Give the backbone structure.
Amino acid sequence: MDKSLWLLMLACAVGTFLLRALPLIWMRRHLVRRSISNSTEAMPVWLTVLAPTMIAAMFGVSLVPAHAGISSWLATLLGGLCTILVWRRTRSLGWPVCVGVTVYGVVVVLLKMMG
């Protein structure tokens, strides 16, 4: 592989890590400050509204296939359906995402092999 591709992958990995780590570090510091000042409200109100909204926006964007076609839409539909079914059964986040991504990938590969 080209060196620039590895640098791009490293930049994506670091950026993804920071997107998750920085809010965690900020929230920990915030909670420590609140516990020292004996405040009753631990989590900021704006975070309880903003966090689910951001998750819903990311979910909505990820549902639209990059290359619009019958196979992409079918894979997205089946992957989303499997994700919902597994979520209803487990009520967790990890397994539904894993199953949905796997079903999406399997459908895309199978449709490419068939056509």
User: Anything to note?
Assistant: The mean pLDDT is 82. DSSP finds four helices and no strands in the chain. The radius of gyration is 19 Å. The chain has two domains: 1-51, 64-115.
